[in-house]
Every structure is written in C-alpha cells, then in structure tokens.
Amino acid sequence: AQSVTQLGSHVSVSEGALVLLRCNYSSSVPPYLFWYVQYPNQGLQLLLKYTSAATLVKGINGFEAEFKKSETSFHLTKPSAHMSDAAEYFCAVGLKGNTPLVFGKGTRLSVIA
Amino acid sequence: KAGVTQTPRYLIKTRGQQVTLSCSPISGHRSVSWYQQTPGQGLQFLFEYFSETQRNKGNFPGRFSGRQFSNSRSEMNVSTLELGDSALYLCASSLDFEQYFGPGTRLTVT
Questions:
Q1: Interface of A with B in 43-62 (CB under 8 A)
Q2: Environment class of B11 (CB within 10 Å of its CB; exposed 0-12, middle 13-18, buried 19+)
Q3: What is the pLDDT of residues B90-101, one digit of tens each?
C-alpha cells in the first residue's frame, strides 16, 4: 500500500523567501503524485501533478515540484513567497488502476510580512 | 465549465440523527469520491462511485453510505450521528486520475 509523509506540520517563511514543503512517498509501483492547496473554509485546489512524464513539474501560482525516485520525494517549492500563499498544503499519491488517492497530513504555510 | 458543487455548505445536527449530503460533479466526470477531513485524522477516504457503482471503499463503519445517480450526482448518508462525525466532508470528481474538489460540507454534531 502507498503512503505519504509530509515533514513539518507548520512552516513559516518571510515574504519573498523561498518556500520548501517536503513530501516523501512510499509506493511499490510507479506512482502519480499531486500537490493540493486548501484555503480556509474551502475545498482542495490542484497545484500540480506528476504522472511519469517530466520529473520537474510546474504548477499554478509559481509553484513547482521535482520527482526524485531515488529519494522517494516530491518536494514543493516556490522561489519567492507571497502573503497569498498562506494556506494548508497537501501531498497525495495515487496509482494507476483507479485506486483512491492517499493524502499526507498536510503542512500549514504561514507567510510573515 | 462549472466546478464541483456541494450542498448544503453548513449543517448542524444532534447525536442520533441522520444526514444526507449532496455532490454534483463536473459535467462529464463519472467518478465521485468522498473524503472526511478532521484536524486529528486529516483527509480520510470514504468511498468512490463510478457509473452508479461503488468502486472503492475506505475503512469507515456501515453508518456511512453513499450512492450515485445516473447523472453522476452523488449523495452520502450518515445514520445515527456521533459527536466524532463532526468534520468537513469533501467530494471530488474525476475524469481520469486527477481529482477536482468541491468546497465541502461542514457538519457539526451536537
């Protein structure tokens, strides 16, 4: 069975600083990987996805993530944090064959002015 | 294209009652999944419906049930509500493997 570990339940960065949110996965077969963002009182919005094509994936709002098979990681980065990036971020892993997504516990990102 | 809609957005029920939540997927999407989100447990998968059939099921008691209609709209039902059922219930629709989430229904059980 697949699983996801997000390191750090809360990350705080200054406005303009690099954002790095960590995600490690466990899967016995090549996975699909996703990052979602959730703003207060809203559902989850897809930021980006990896589906076995390019290992560096670019998403919305300036975010990107790199799939590293050797490290079983899919960390999310953004060069310069903006106040509007403050939200909860979820990493998820899925497999081919219509199996349910498995989500990490989430990382709350705070951006300090 | 309209997104996933969920009704109602907020609900307050008392213990022992039952509740029905509704989800309308994105047009053309045949798969609908339901998740429970709580601060302690995070996002937990409830079940998935595809073409009116339950295709996957999470580890929840039988009090949690769902169904899907021919137009792909889905409902989930929770009977004999417990305090621990208080949560944000999220519905997601998908065409392939990418899931699109609705805004959720916030259920409070008192």
A1: 43-46, 49, 51
A2: middle
A3: 999 998 778 999
